[in-house]
Amino acid sequence: MKAAILAVGSELLGTDRLDTNSLRLTELLERYGVELRRKSVAGDSEEDIAEELRFLFSKVDLVLVTGGLGPTADDITREAAATALGRGMRFDPEILAGIERRFREHGRQMPAVNRKQAEVIEGAEVIPNPRGTAPGMRLEADNGSTLFLFPGVPTELEGMILSHLEPWLAERSGGASRETVTLKIAGLPESTVEERIAPAYAEFGREWITILASPGEIRLRATAAGPEPERRARLEAMKARLAELAGDAVFCDREELTLEAVVGELLRAAGATLTVAESCTGGLLAERITRVAGSSDYFLGGVVSYDNRIKSELLGVEPALIETHGAVSEPVAVAMAAGVRRALRSDYGIGITGVAGPGGGSEAKPVGTVHIALAGPGDEVEHHNVRVPGDRERVRWQSAQLALERLRRRLLEGVSQC
Fold this sequence. Notes:
Layout: E1 2-8, H1 21-31, E2 35-42, H2 46-57, E3 62-66, H3 77-85, E4 89-91, H4 93-105, E5 119-121, E6 125-127, E7 136-140, E8 146-150, H5 154-173, E9 178-186, H6 190-204, E10 209-214, E11 217-225, H7 228-246, E12 250-252, H8 259-270, E13 274-278, H9 284-290, E14 299-304, H10 308-315, H11 319-325, H12 330-344, E15 348-354, E16 369-375, E17 381-387, H13 392-412
Parallel strand pairs: 1-2, 1-3, 3-8, 13-14, 13-15
Antiparallel strand pairs: 4-5, 6-7, 7-8, 9-11, 9-12, 10-11, 15-16, 16-17
Helix pairs in contact: 1-5, 2-3, 6-7, 8-13
């Protein structure tokens, strides 16, 4: 089966909105062995959408369209699809009743413009949308191509994928034919990961292994295809071999888990608490830690000691230490980590100080110079001096990432697990 994805919306042709729906659909198509031949974006033009659909019908077996099913004047995907198929539209009173009921349940009266969403293309199977007011549709073109129309709201699209698209694909493919596992790695550059896992290319095939790099983190993806028993066995063998080659830098084998979530589980399992003292990261580390639900079990709080006076008054960093070594230095980072741990009475304390840029650097301490200290348990304090490349946001993000990675390794005592 060959497929194409069309994202509708003039906002997707600008610079402030990304088409993330196509990524979700692509992942699903890959899993079921469907060959994706084309991705395209069309603005809110009925003529352009219809022209693109006619072209796609001539090239592929399956066309997935997202967006343009709303109630406003620029939502014209229904009309464009009807034009491309050479069909009329019909009004569906049951759909209208469902939309009205949804508004009543939220204590509102349905605006008249929402009647538009009860228009259905002739011959379409309506796909219910329990998460919104825009129903989807499935249609068969005259040449046998199948067309799915989905809303552009990601949560609504996800509901229809699970209820209709995935079962439809599974029925026609005999079940998933491709599976992927992801190993997540922190603290290593892409080139180092490449060198470590190179033997796996010869063992399993280069085309089945992918390295995806982002600041402070590497995603190592292995893919296997074929009948389920052989596919699962091969995937497990690839996962085990890649984990062995990558070593203790692997912090998780689940795509949805973040480094802060993994660290949080380790803290919870150890019955330990954490506090942080941040300068150049400006509270980013604490924000990432508290993104995780239940982080109050182990995270007590932190101090954003951007000014030297705050370092001294709240964290107990001696002014003479700052005067002698500078705020961006090993002694100050160590004092910050020990100070926040002592002041807030936690098992572990992290101190971060550095030059995030774009200004403020010097020959001795250029932009990207960061000192990270980890205190606890007991009197133990470890220090790491790193040079982080990139702009201000990248320096801040990677500093927080490296701090979390050092804590993970301390908690694991050299044993990587998820």
